[in-house]
Amino acid sequence: xxxxxxxxxxxxxxxxxxxxxxxxxxxxxxxxxxxxxxxxxxxxxxxxxxxxxxxxxxxxxxxxxxxxxxxxxxxxxxxxxxxxxxxxxxxxxxxxxxxxxxxxxxxxxxxxxxxxxxxxxxxxxxxxxxxxxxxxxxxxxxxxxxxxxxxxxxxxxxxxxxxxxxxxxxxxxxxxxxxxxxxxxxxxxxxxxxxxxxxxxxxxxxxxxxxxxxxxxxxxxxxxxxxxxxxxxxxxxxxxxxxxxxxxxxxxxxxxxxxxxxxxxxxxxxxxxxxxxxxxxxxxxxxxxxxxxxxxxxxxxxxxxxxxxxxxxxxxxxxxxxxxxxxxxxxxxxxxxxxxxxxxxxxxxxxxxxxxxxxxxxxxxxxxxxxxxxxxxxxxxxxxxxxxxxxxxxxxxxxxxxxxxxxxxxxxxxxxxxxxxxxxxxxxxxxxxxxxxxxxxxxxxxxxxxxxxxxxxxxxxxxxxxxxxxxxxxxxxxxxxxxxxxxxxxxxxxxxxxxxxxxxxxxxxxxxxxxxxxxxxxxxxxxxxxxxxxxxxxxxxxxxxxxxxxxxxxxxxxxxxxxxxxxxxxxxxxxxxxxxxxxxxxxxxxxxxxxxxxxxxxxxxxxxxxxxxxxxxxxxxxxxxxxxxxxxxxxxxxxxxxxxxxxxxxxxxxxxxxxxxxxxxxxxxxxxxxxxxxxxxxxxxxxxxxxxxxxxxxxxxxxxxxxxxxxxxxxxxxxxxxxxxxxxxxxxxxxxxxxxxxxxxxxxxxxxxxxxxxxxxxxxxxxxxxxxxxxxxxxxxxxxxxxxxxxxxxxxxxxxxxxxxxxxxxxxxxxxxxxxxxxxxxxxxxxxxxxxxxxxxxxxxxxxxxxxxxxxxxxxxxxxxxxxxxxxxxxxxxxxxxxxxxxxxxxxxxxxx
Length: 897
What we know:
Elements: E1 14-15, H1 42-52, E2 57-59, H2 62-72, H3 75-78, H4 98-107, H5 118-136, E3 145-146, E4 165-168, E5 180-187, H6 192-212, E6 219-225, E7 228-235, E8 238-241, E9 245-246, H7 251-263, E10 276-282, E11 285-296, E12 299-311, E13 321-329, E14 336-345, H8 353-362, E15 370-376, E16 378-380, E17 389-391, H9 395-398, E18 413-420, E19 423-425, H10 432-451, E20 455-456, E21 465-469, H11 477-482, H12 487-498, E22 502-506, E23 513-514, H13 522-526, E24 540-541, E25 552-557, E26 566-569, E27 577-579, H14 613-616, H15 628-645, E28 646-648, E29 651-652, H16 655-660, H17 662-665, H18 674-680, H19 682-688, H20 701-712, E30 715-717, E31 723-725, H21 731-743, H22 791-794, E32 800-801, H23 834-838, E33 846-850, E34 856-860, H24 886-892
Parallel strand pairs: 2-8, 5-6
Antiparallel strand pairs: 1-24, 3-4, 4-5, 6-7, 7-8, 7-9, 10-11, 10-32, 11-12, 12-13, 13-14, 14-18, 15-18, 16-17, 19-21, 20-23, 21-22, 25-26, 25-27, 28-29, 30-31, 33-34
Helix pairs in contact: 1-6, 5-7, 10-15, 10-21, 15-20, 18-19, 20-21
């Protein structure tokens, strides 16, 4: 029996999955399409930043601070290569030393800082930068600091935020978040209170910076407190802050920090240098694109990224960015649209999204993305002497620091996946028939994935459902026969489906798992129901129950990528370890015996807004196994959500209407049973849901009612507090109900809104919707999206590199929404009991705060109404005790995502 077990953040208990703080809820936000600018205000963000960054923020000691600065900004990087500057001398080194540079500053009288006011301080910074630039002449462009942003908010983001000082990437930068290299927070004195408040404000602005700059993974910031300067670094693993360096008494360290940020290459600033910034001449217009090259088998492919389809504003965690672009081979003349998706994924997961898609594609599952390529993204390894390229990982920045073995952080590696086709969100449907056929496509794809490929999706949400221009898709004739549709009706419906321009594509398989390794039952899960932490985290086991290593990843030496990968504990990672993943269609898992996070039957996945009731309620005493029925319930919630979000195609409801229904039940980023409670009861289903559905959707409202009766109404609590179902529900039942509704739709429901005269001018030949030039302030400039044409016909000249990142087009918000962005259960904000307000205020409002270990406190707050002001003793009871009431249990639920 092995006794040398890897340590985990939970002390003596071993964990079969996660060596990083899995239970810490990162900043979860309202998606960009549903966000308003006030969501980014400090009033909304600061409390959440304080709570959600606490465990992964490292305050470094003096020794660790020196180690970090020497690694990021060595003399050879910031004072080299030697050119013909004032200090030019011929020697064996190709760079200057700090002592040489600092002596020159002293000789010129620039060794003392100005007062801690933004304007004079920016001028002092620039004077130091100019002096060193004249002395060294390294050949790299120096960056400049300004204080204009202290009084005027930057453009280019959803946030109305004003950095005290801004450092710009290059001359010619626009007054825009997307051209910002770094920023500084200035306070006139130090102290613990100002250290904390300045960090919170800096973290909020770092969120804005990373959201604005696609292809950037690290934000470097200054916090200037009195005469001290702190360098704070945010990446997808957490944040680090150096100790304070007094600008006057520790000037060498100050100079290293200042010149490091203003002269370091882009990769040190956190930009992904595998993505080039280019400008091209196309049809007489200069356009900016981002370009990358990939090698698939023996073929070199070039991809031009011309728009951002999605970018996460999560400060930590996956940090997903999705681009749309065009791909072409170096030997071919045609170009095709593709999707490029970068995500910081957990290396403890055995199955990457590319591996899942390769399984689905091998089984010819329709209605899912087609995998073109998957790879790990490389970056210079800062922890190695020669900075060789290595697979990008958050452990490199922290390796070698004294806190590395003891302090939590998110262990993440950067993955890139390239897929086809390019699609639009389901909310961009053109007619009711297209919407319902898309949902039929999703259910059929999900069914085939489960029954044929044995893959479970586990993350159904509004933003994972797409419409794409496709050819040769199934007309669902077999499903119609299964549903018992008469022959004449089948023929008519097949003809209507065949005429649709776009069909549904079920996307984002990043949390999917093979069903063969997902076989635990409720009884298996019950043994963990008394654990201190909710069993929605990876399963915890005693060290006496297994000989297998836990929390392990495969690595090769940074200096030798061709070496055979070996398995080591996360706790034993060093800066010389290059984490390697099994990716793409050629990867194998036969020799991988790890019990990983995606094999845990209790590791709940999903998005709070659309999560099934049983998953929401999971916790001590309510163990649960994620199964296909949970995904079907999520699909139903998404369909209901679309009905109450829009008045029709491209017709969002007004703020007042959204606040009465959609915002209350679906625009939530906390565990909530409210949507299920409201939908389940006929007393609330009609006035609170059906009443808010517009006339456009009335021909298909009966579909919701039938699905509700079959899927939601049968839910109940048993004597042990577990959610049960009185009758089964299957994919075929979902499919039959959709087909029945489609067969009864009138001709008007199949006509795209705005295209009654068959005017298809809004779409390119590639099926990509062409939008008008955005007119909103801060929205990226339009980039021409060409259809697939030959290189000879495209009319563009060879690309030239740009000193500034192109401002790619982004999706513009279609509607506004209530509620703060960056909303998480750990935010410590007041969580209003909207069920009580709607249901005659039967229950009081509550304020709940959770810790990252799943501990909660419940405190009553005054009700806004004279009714229901007395505290309900049920809600003060111990978590996990069943009351038999779904309403009461929903208000009392403390599950976590």
